[in-house]
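Researcher: Next entry in the queue.
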Amino acid sequence: MQLTILSTSDTHGFIAPTNYVRRGLDLPFSLSKAKPVIDALRQQATGPVLTIENGDYLQGSPLAYYAASIKQDPRLETAAYNQVGYDLGIVGNHEFNYGREYLSKAIATLNYPVLCANILDHGAPAFGQPYQIFEKGGVKVAVLGLTTSYIPHWEGPSHIHDLTFESPVAAAKQWLERLHELADVVVIAYHGGFERDLETGEPTEALTGENVGYQLSQLPGVDALVTGHQHRELAGLVNGVPTTQPGYRGADVGVITLDLKQTQAGWQVAGAAAKLVATGAAKADAGVLAAVKQTQNDTEDWLDSPLGRVQGDMTIQDPQAARRVETPYIEFINKVQMAATGTDIAGTALFNNEGTGFGQTITMRDVVTNYIYPNTLAVLRLSGADIKAALEQCAEFFSLQEGQLVVTERFAKPKPQYYNYDMYQGLDYTLDISQPVGQRVTRLLYHGAPVASDQYYEVTTNSYRAAGGGNFAMFDPSKIVRENQKDMTELIADYLQAHPVISARADHNFTVLPKM
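Model: Structure for this entry, 516 residues:
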């Protein structure tokens, strides 16, 4: 007999195949495209099938934001998830972004059980049961639900009051032996990822305990491991355990197959495989779309409604010029980041050459068109030397060609990496591209005084950069002192709700030489 385990993870409320840049899109992802792939895989399976929603469904898309923040009604989103036919769900870290009470309300609207063994309320499971046993074709399958325990580093106390976040590894050790007494097959569904190389076991990031998938795969008695959280596309055997992580926004369905043989002691795993199946070519499921049709239409209308107004000019006419001379749009984004994290230094990038900034009226659609990545924010405790090193690396974005400033080739080809050049607010600095690499920061001030190499400063960046993304070696997770886990598009919307009229200003705190 063969048991098939299907999973989605980190769909983040992207139910329709759109990123909401404009109406009527048909992009290669979404819950509605995952559903027909899941249905086809069920039909193709040669034995019983178990289907898992592995967390981070409640926050991320404009529709999810609309349901939670505008209407305060999770049913407007969860109605679509109830169409898929999941056997169970897992609690993700972003489920807490709208508060514990909203999460509990959302769970109550689902037509499948939610499992979580390591988030406790006064010693008892806070959300659903730790595990559940499913009988599939005469096989007893135990699923243990686990969630990254790093949530207190991201969420404010009001969102996680009375909760204790235990180590997923410790919780798994507590339950595994018991589950094998109760079931033939034991599956761990973990909303978390991997902090180690999947082949060598060498650390690939700081071992904070956020992503302990590798350690879970090492525990005796784990027959299959479903993961998520990192938005990676992974499938294979890790320490002999079949493992999947099916990407982001429903772009893939994870497939684990377990070959089972029957013995006197019951069913045992005799072989295993894992793969991902892309959903992009599928036709969006009519039932999933119908479940949120009105909400989707209302969200699209809301996206086109005004969020705020601009006094002055916040448009971007020339993206390359905007990287040399500060624009009001970049200063605005940095001010949003500082307001969201309580710092007075922040850095951001102009991610591509397609953003046009904001016109006189700002809509939510303008926000998601310009701020294209689902970033959250992190505050780093950096030395002056770290800050200078980061600026020196940013200065490498430019080169001189026949006396003219141009983008250094490796940032443009083969893949444009405009997102790896940051512009900072709260610092006054000069980048002189005529100087040798590593010696281009010729002025660096904080509140009018020179930045001291051995003094420490709190700096806000997006989560990608804070972890060292873009090969910024001076940044790493060990230097993160706090985070804001709201998506930046939400933070921008929140800021505009609080400040509905903004002035297009730029203090030109940075200079890139030679001036063009």
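Model: Residues 168-182 form the longest helix (15 residues).
Researcher: Noted, moving on.
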